[in-house]
Amino acid sequence: MFQNTKYRFFKEDLCDSCGLCFHLCPVLHLPLEKAKQEIINLIKGKESKYVLNKCNTCFSCNLYCPNQANPYQLILERWNKIYKKRGAPPLYRFVCPTEEPNLWQLLNLFLSNTEKKWIHKWMYNVPKQEDTVLLIGSYTHLFPFIIGGSKLLEYFKPIDLIDHWEGGAYLYQGGYLDVVKEIANQTKKDFDGWNVKRIVALLDTVEYMFNNVHPKEMGVEHNRDLINFHDWLIENIDSGEINLPNQLNMNVTIHDNCFSKVLGGKYWDKPRKILNKCGCNIIEMRHIKKDALCCGFGAGASWVKNIALPFDIISEGVKKFREAEETGAQALISYCSGCIYFLWATRELLGSKIDIFHIIEVVRLSMGEKLNYPKDHIKRAWDIIAIISYSLLLSIFKKNFFIKDLKYDKNFSTFKPKRQILLKFMRILFNISFIRKFYSWFFRLIIPLMKTR
Ligand code: SF4
Ligand code: SF4
Predict the structure, then answer these.
(1) How far apart are alpha carbons 249 and 217 in whole angstroms?
(2) What does 279-314 look like in DSSP terms, one character per residue?
(3) Rounded to an integer, what distance in angstroms lies between the CA atom of residue 19 and that of residue 185?
(4) Ligand nearest to the CA of 74
(5) Which of 146, 154, 219, 337 is the Cys-Cys partner for 139 at CB 3.0 to 4.6 Å?
(6) Ligand 2 centroid to 178 CA: how many Å?
(7) Lowest pLDDT segment from 86-90, 160-164, 255-259
(8) Which of the listed residues 10, 39, 59, 320 should we mutate to test ligand 1's pocket, taking the one with most ligand atoms within 8 A of CB?
(9) Inter-axis angle of helices 337-350 and 433-450, to 10 degrees?
């Protein structure tokens, strides 16, 4: 479907097989001759020794290509072909809101009543034409306390539809291109039905999907005034509508997520500007912006063995932590809600001491709002570690699958999880400090044995 159509985004005619894309890749660092061979193999659809099995889906190669040939999209096309043959790994079910059990459904067992109330409201809100909708997104749904109860929400009608799949962003990164196209059509129906004044996406990634990937790569035009939250925030801070009286005087380092690299870096400066306005001093990591390393989640895209997935992800996340800690900054700031849940889980498993904040939390602190930090994050990190461990156990007995249902049934899923006795028991164990320490130690011990990269 994505081969030789007008929406094909890899520009084969512009590629001269120079190999720079995979030679400069911050993950693969292939010697130039191997890099050349690899791009030739990918173009011809031959076996790939490195890229398809080790790529972190970080987008950097598009920025290294001197000819704007979009090698990243070639990787996605190849993964799409592989997906059509072998399906998705069984563990991937847990990030599919239409599969059972899934992350959102299982997390509902551990959400506080306040969190459940916020989420319920956001999921069932119906926007009126004059509203400005804030797309909360399925990953912020996992950490509703990041923004729940904030004055920032008073400017919007917050909507949280987990079957918007973040505009298909994480599926796109795994090469599930046909599924993303269906999601583009599904979200278009919602947007057309709402017909609202303005839509603000909490994640710049999601704004990029709606404004760029859907129309240019999937052929689905939304034709909406759709901006990202950073733009909205800067506009309102500059106009004096949002005040930041509490200057934080904090040394921070910033995690540039993979999607921030699209559009030549349009998304890098705004979060830095916002942090400066909050009184943060930014100490940059060794790899930033176009060279930035992934939080680890992207390692799942090039999966080889289902059982190895969490170990591959954490082993890549370790690199990010090393760089963040080397800066000596007090805190690592993420402006992506997808990365932050992996960063927190990795922090707990590694026993790192660096603070991690979502950029919205930094803004709220600067506004003078109170957070239950870091307690809420630590609790949630262990909720997520329990869910991933449990899902990994279940996945051992399941087969690869194809993502078919894209619309979830509200009665089946989010607010009606099954009893999940084993998961609850695991979560109780993780309340015991000794067990947490032992589990983290054991996890770190077996990473080298389990990982595939
Ligand atoms: S997407 Fe990132 S990890 Fe993958 S080949 Fe390109 S630069 Fe390397
Ligand atoms: S995609 Fe770009 S960088 Fe990669 S081999 Fe082709 S021309 Fe060179």
Answers:
(1) 43
(2) TEEE---SS-GGGPPP-SGGGGGG-S-GGGHHHHHH
(3) 36
(4) 2
(5) 337
(6) 25
(7) 160-164
(8) 59
(9) 100
At residue 152, what are phi and psi to the nearest 5 degrees?
Answer: -55, -30
Is-contact 137 451, C-beta < 8 A? no
- The three-class DSSP label of residue 428 is helix
**What are the DSSP E strand ranges found in 13-164?**
132-135, 157-159
415 pLDDT more than 70? no
Give 207-273 as a DSSP string.
HHIIIIIIIIIS-----S-EEEHHHHHHHHHHTTSS---S---EEEEEE--GGGGGGGGTTTHHHHH
**b/e 288-314 (16+ beta carbons within 10 angstroms → b):** bbbbbbbbbbbbbbbbeebebbbbbbb
Q: Is the pLDDT at 104 greater than 50, yes or no?
A: yes
Q: What is the 3-state secondary structure (H, E, C) of 196-211?
A: CCEEEECCHHHHHHHH
Quote the ligand 1 centre to 178 CA distance (angstroms): 21
Token reading at 65: 């290509």
Instruction: Please say whether the dihedral angle defined by the alpha carbons of residues 209, 252, 375 and 362, taken in this order, is positive or negative.
Output: negative
More confident residue, 8 or 219: 219
67 Cβ inside 6 Å of ligand 2: yes
Residue closest to 87 by CA, chosen among 207, 174, 9: 174
Band of residue 418 on the pLDDT scale cut at 50, 70, 90: confident
Q: Assess whether the C-beta atom of 27 lies below 6 angstroms from ligand 1.
A: yes
367/345 Cα distance (integer angstroms): 27
Strands (E), 330-418: 331-334, 355-358
Q: Whose CA is nearest to atom 8 of ligand 1?
A: 25
| Distance between CA atoms of residues 82 and 174, nearest Å | 11
Q: How far apart are CA 32 and CA 21, in angstroms?
A: 9
Structure tokens at 233: 């925030």
